[in-house]
Amino acid sequence: MYSLKPLVRRIQISGFCLIATLLTAGAATAQVVEEDSDSSSGSPPKPNVLLIYVDDMGFGDLGCYGSDTESPNIDRLAGQGIRFTNYLSAANVCSPSRAAVLTGRYPNRCGCPVCPSERDGVWKQHVGLPLDEITIAELVQSQGYATAAFGKWHLGNLNSFGPMKQGFEHYEGALYNFPVGKTGQWYHREEPKDKIRFAQAHQRLTDGTIEFMKQQQSDGKPFFVYLTHYLVHGPWSPNKAFCTDKQWASVKKKKGGMNPIALPAMVRELDHHIGLLMQALEDLGIEENTMVIFASDNGPWLPAGSSGPFTSGKYVTMEGGHRVPAFVRWPGRIKPSQVSDKMVSALDLLPTIAAASGATLPSDRTYDGYNMLPMLTDADKQSPRKQFAYYNGVRLEAVRQGDWKLHLPRDPKEAVYWSNEKKDPHFNLKRPVLNQLIDDPSEKKDVHRSHPEKVSQLQAMAEATRAEIGDVGQQGNDQHVKTYPGNYQVAPWRKPKPKR
Ligand SMILES: [Ca+2]
Question: What's the 203 CA to ligand 1 centre distance in angstroms?
Answer without folding.
Answer: 20
